[in-house]
Amino acid sequence: MKKILFVASEAVPFIKTGGLADVVGSLPKYFDKEQYDIRVMIPKYLCIKQEWRDKMNYVTHFYMNLAWRSQYVGVLEMEYEGVTFYFIDNEYYFAGAKPYGNIYEDIEKFAFFSKAAISALPSLNFRPDIIHCHDWQTGLVPVFLNDSFQDNPFFQGIKTVMTIHNLKFQGIWDMKTVKDITGLNASYFTPDKLEAYGDANYLKGGIVYADAVTTVSDTYAEEIKMPYYGEHLDGLLRARSNSLRGIVNGIDYNEYNPETDKFLAHNYNAVNFRKEKVKNKTALQEELGLNVDPKKMMIGIVSRLTDQKGFDLIAYVMDELCQDEVQFVVLGTGEERYENMFRHFAWKYQGKVSANIFYSEALSHKIYGSCDAFLMPSQFEPCGLSQLMSLRYGTVPIVRETGGLKDTVQPYNEYESTGTGFSFTNYNAHEMMNTVRYAERIYYDRKREWNKIVDRAMAADFSWNNSAKKYAEMYDWLAG
Ligand code: ADP
Ligand code: GLC
């Protein structure tokens, strides 16, 4: 039996700000339980809903040195859908209204969390063969593990994996402060270790010290070795390319299933979507105050509103696109300029554009289960889960060919009648617009073709089964 501990800053169903939570919360369910015991450790944020907090059981607590400070570490535990979750408690660090706040606070918060995660292990009755770290918040785990913990035989031989879900966020702060916070010896703060461009960099530490590095799609694994996508770490990633691989994300096919989804007004499947799915569209049009018209092409967007997701392209051509026979339904929160942009278009094109500037799991499912198409013109996209959810619900993705979008959406080819969506290559607003308009033409003028795209989209398999096998292979190889 191989034992693996995921350490991460978010996991569904407890706390989620993006796709990271979906991955960390769902992937562990998809391993062969006879061979792999996969557990998950996240912070016990005060903003985790009370109903979950009430179900956690106390395991232990102790005090841990973090540089010159001595800090309380509580450990709680809960089993959910067959997976054991551990929660690290410290009300000073994890009290915020959201998991992340100011970077200078987060820098200390996640140094604490990373060290606490390792320190808690001896009291858990669970010695992992591998600690699987996710994103910069846990980048210091391989670093700390390499440090003073090696004096204790318990920790010797534990391997680490660092998975990059988004290279843009690295956890960068000045070296003096990070030295002071972490208590790590000055020898760690050199350009071959934690230092990058004069600052300390948590993710870099993780990449340097982890035994294996992965990211969430093949294309992104290649892209980040080049300057354009490499976020200044492309040199390091080239140097580590023998230990770096891409494993594409899946989604939870039980959670995201149009046949059983409790948020949908009408459930449907790959056989009856032609008649049933449109009922969700009219229900959503009514709910959101859009013009009710079952024939109108409805395009969805569910996203963090950041520049990563290509909203600058949308800003550029939205007026033009709104002259077409289409409706837009947007759900998202994030940067104010994008929030206001969509509010503006909803005001300007009433009945055509619906801007929902908040977070709602229910509405997200309704959008995946109602729209005809889903627009995701990302500037970069390590994997992307929204397009996978769209495929699963027969909502045709329109994407830019980057990262995981390129690996998971097969562009429509009208001559061969293949493809599961529409895509364009360059980060260019008119290229995007032409692609949306091409999709409109197929939708309105060649409905049978459109429905065949939907057939193929719904038949694509992005459940976790395949990718969980690849992680398992990697664990086998690492843990011997
Ligand atoms: P990222 O992790 O970069 O945000 P992904 O596509 O991997 O992008 O994952 C985004 C996840 O967050 C999806 O599950 C998506 O449905 C969800 N999501 C994003 N914004 C919202 C929102 N406002 N309300 C509900 N779910 C959202
Ligand atoms: C990040 C990426 C997204 C990916 C998710 C889960 O948030 O932006 O592309 O799907 O992590 O791996």
Write the layout of secondary structure elements.
Elements: E1 2-7, H1 19-26, E2 36-43, H2 50-53, E3 57-66, E4 69-80, E5 83-89, H3 103-120, E6 130-134, H4 140-146, E7 159-164, E8 172-174, H5 175-182, E9 195-196, E10 199-201, H6 202-209, E11 212-215, H7 218-223, H8 227-230, H9 234-239, E12 244-246, H10 273-288, E13 297-305, H11 311-321, E14 326-334, H12 336-348, E15 353-356, H13 361-368, E16 373-376, H14 386-392, E17 396-400, H15 403-408, E18 422-424, H16 429-445, H17 447-459, H18 465-479
Detailed description of the structure:
Helix content is 36%, strand content 21%. By secondary structure, it is α/β, with parallel strands linked by helices. The chain folds into two domains: 264 residues, Glycogen Phosphorylase B (Rossmann fold, 3-Layer(aba) Sandwich); 189 residues, 3-Layer(aba) Sandwich (Rossmann fold), CATH 3.40.50.2000. The radius of gyration is 23 Å and the shape is globular. The mean pLDDT is 98. The protein binds adenosine-5'-diphosphate and alpha-D-glucopyranose. The site of adenosine-5'-diphosphate has 18 residues, from helix 1, strand 13, strand 14 and helix 13. The site of alpha-D-glucopyranose (GLC) has 14 residues, from helix 1.
